[in-house]
Design a protein that fits this description.
The complex is a heterodimer of chains A (113) and B (115). Chain A is globular, with a radius of gyration of 13 Å. Helices cover 0% and strands 50% of the residues of chain A. Chain A has no helices and 12 strands. Chain A is mostly beta strands. Chain B has 115 residues and is mainly beta. Helices cover 0% and strands 52% of the residues of chain B. In chain B, strands 2, 4, 5, 6, 9, 10 and 11 form a 7-stranded mixed β-sheet that branches. A 4-stranded antiparallel β-sheet of chain B has the order 1-3-8-7, with no helix packed on it. The relative contact order of chain B is 0.33. Classes of the chains: A mainly beta (113), B mainly beta (115). The interface between A and B is medium-sized, with 24 and 30 residues.
């Protein structure tokens, strides 16, 4: 079946540090991959996406590359800010229109100044 | 602002009661999804509606039901509530077309507390 595994948190970093949050997936076919972010007390916001192998999604300084050979979609940012503190969810959508997203368990990021 | 609205924002009720959560999708989106977020289970898909009809079911309990109305808003009904039903309930919407891409837009959620 389809599943997403992401690294356990919490991740605690100092401002301007480099961030990596690992995400691997299991899926049949060619899923679309997403990173969503949830700020405290808010809903989920789409951070970035990739729809085919070798695509790189990017937004707000965050990047992730769809690696089919390693079934991975790791999230990276070169220099984190305090405002990046949130919970990050990796998700996949099976290659069928209009299907539910399958989420990882989420990784809490805490950035201190 | 995603364009998806959910009401109420907070709901506190007692065990055994019944509640209704409401969701209005983004303008033009035909598909509505309901997810439950709890500390132990994470984000779990409950049910999906597309243009008024049930499209897919996930880990939805028999005590829970949903529907989508002609104006495309959706309601999630939770009955015989138990303490373990306390969670954040999210609604999401998407445009379902011929593309396999499936970006979903999430509402702010309804926090349900069962006492």
């Amino acid at each position: 079946g389809n599943s997403v595994t992401q690294m356990e948190g919490p991740v605690t970093l100092s401002e301007e540090a480099f961030l990596t949050i690992n995400c691997t997936y299991t899926a049949t076919g060619y899923p679309s991959l997403f990173w969503y972010v949830q700020y405290p007390g808010e809903g989920l916001q789409l951070l970035l996406k990739a729809t085919k192998a070798d695509d790189k999604g990017s937004n707000k300084g965050f990047e992730a590359t769809y690696r089919k050979e390693t079934t991975s979609f790791h999230l990276e940012k070169g220099s984190v800010q305090v405002s990046d503190s949130a919970v990050y969810f990796c998700a996949l959508s099976p290659n069928q229109a209009g299907t539910a997203l399958i989420f990882g368990k989420g990784t809490t990021l805490s950035v201190s100044s | 602002d995603s364009g998806v609205t959910q009401t109420p924002k907070h709901l506190i009720t007692a065990t055994g009661q019944r509640v209704t959560l409401r969701c209005s999708p983004r303008s033009g989106d035909l598909s509505v999804y309901w997810y439950q977020q709890s500390l132990d289970q994470g984000l779990q898909f409950l049910i999906q509606y597309y243009n008024g009809e049930e499209r897919a079911k996930g880990n939805i309990l028999e005590r829970f039901s949903a529907q989508q109305f002609p104006d495309l808003h959706s309601e999630l009904n939770l009955s015989s509530l138990e303490l373990g039903d306390s969670a954040l309930y999210f609604c999401a919407s998407s445009v379902v077309g011929t593309s396999s891409y499936n970006e979903q837009f999430f509402g702010p959620g309804t926090r349900l507390t069962v006492l």
